[in-house]
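New to this. Help decode the following:
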Amino acid sequence: MSTFSLLAKKANLDDTDIDHLQRLTSSWGMLADLCFSDLVLYAPLRHSEPTDDGSAVPEFVILAQVRPATAQTSIPDDLVGTNGSPEEVSLVAQGFQSEMLVFRESISPDGGEWIVSQCIPVRRAGRVIAIIDRRHITSARLVHGELERTYIRLFEQFAKMISDGEFPFEGTDIEEAPRVGDGVLVLDAEKRIVFMSPNAASALHRLGLHLIKKGDLFGHSGLQFSAPDRAYATHRPVIEEIEHRADVTLMMHAIPLLDEGEVTGALVLMRDISELRRRDRMLLSKDATIREVHHRVKNNLQTISSLLRLQARRLGPSQGQDALKEAERRIRSIAVVHEILSREIGDQVSFPEIVSAIVKLAEESIMPNYPVKIEVTGSASDLDARVATPLALVLAELLQNSIDHAFGAAFASSGETGLVEVFLDQRDDLLEMIVADNGAGFPEGFDMEKAVSLGLLIVNDIVVSQLGGTMEIQNENGAKIVLTIPLG
């Protein structure tokens, strides 16, 4: 439970009163800025000590306080949870009992400044439930220009609405709304612009609106916001965002000004949130990237698990070491793609770079007495990582299969050099990859389902099941395997 709620439980308030005051404190940073003053919220305690004549002396607890961002504070201390000084409480009690605005001017505790206090009754459902004590230092109060005079008039309107029970509005939470320093427009009953702060003008200029001026009707100004119209129609505040190009986003908070239930105008707070939304988009993008990485790792771990399971089924006596070496080589093939992905931003990865790395891995396994050369021809471009990862494993298996089985002892003794060719042809939404060698070729009547080589089974499973492609085995001056992979 929050400090506010704990303190409010001590006060003579029911749950709806507490909700009303919480809505008030969620918006009173705006009120403090408008009146260039500190605001302190007093609520009556449930129990008060009786006097000699039997009348109750109200006692109060301070539920909240706020300092202005537009002026010097008159309250350097944190008063929340205290009962206030006797002088302050006497003024608050006077305002609470009379249910009227009460003023007092006093010297500050250090004797250096004069402080003006104004007690504003907070009314809900026809009764006063709390008091706002507005305090400001007279020497620091800036009311010389149009901006300051406008802000003070706005606060006086809100003070009357608070006293009449028309503010804060029910069911609204405006903690994320713009503040007064972000930019202010004031509209009259006809939605005509009667005031525009310099920061508001700058925000509108970022939208490309340079000709807006005082006296213009808001609806004829070129602004695409509907917040003021909805605020006038519903008698409730409305928050709206508008995006002008990808790099400019403006937030508008339209608050209707009421007098006895009638809209007499509106305070429109404006804030340029372009940088905030840009960061939001970056966070969303990073979050999506992290989720995609987890997804890829999960898929690759599943692939590794399947490879090890297939390898284990084919193990015979004393074959453990060789099997582990083969499994390690396959895992390294998958790691090649992740290494390249770690250096690049996005979902696309350079497949020619992957091919080069896989070829290098394969060349490392060539025995010195079996001279084999690997050549790559044709061309390919960037591929989606979800295709590139299994395809890297496929290429590694085919190269290793040629190195291990195409060139036997007779070939080595002939003095010839074995050649393994990789041909790539990427066009539109299709990739053709051919791995061919000039070795012994496949035996007559070769059946892949009965093949000793686990590598070809792995390749066929990945190409058909994962990539949705086709695999064709040919004998053409050696072994030739043609893979067709859809990229759509």
User: Anything to note?
Assistant: The chain has three domains: 3-164, 180-272, 292-486. The longest helix spans residues 274-313.
